[in-house]
Amino acid sequence: GLIFLILLWLSEMIVSPHLFCRRLCPGGALFSIIGHLRFWRVKRSVAKCDSCGVCNPVCPYDLSPATGNLPGECDNCGLCIDACTGNNRDALSYVFNTGKDKA
What we know:
The protein is an alpha+beta fold and about 100 residues long. The chain has helices at about 1-15, 20-25, 25-35, 80-85; strands spanning about 40-45, 90-95. Helices cover about 35% and strands about 10% of the residues. It has a two-stranded antiparallel ribbon with strand order 1-2. The protein is flat and about 50 Å long. The N and C termini lie far apart (about 40 Å).
């Protein structure tokens, strides 16, 4: 078990942060699948977004809300929305998922 933890820690430090949570953890995989079925989503308004990237560093999952890259790992915490509205841009907001478009 200790060897596994050391290898996991090294892979997190060298290969990719959050590697275990994003790719290997069964709970993370389940949450990702469920995330695609959620009713409320964070959505980027292309017309209002100037791609400043203020929202990207606040994302705890290292996603890219400024590019509209919000896959199932996004848990709709709203930190990116707060960062965006704090700069009077309002390019990110919660929308009801109709299933017609990808968020």
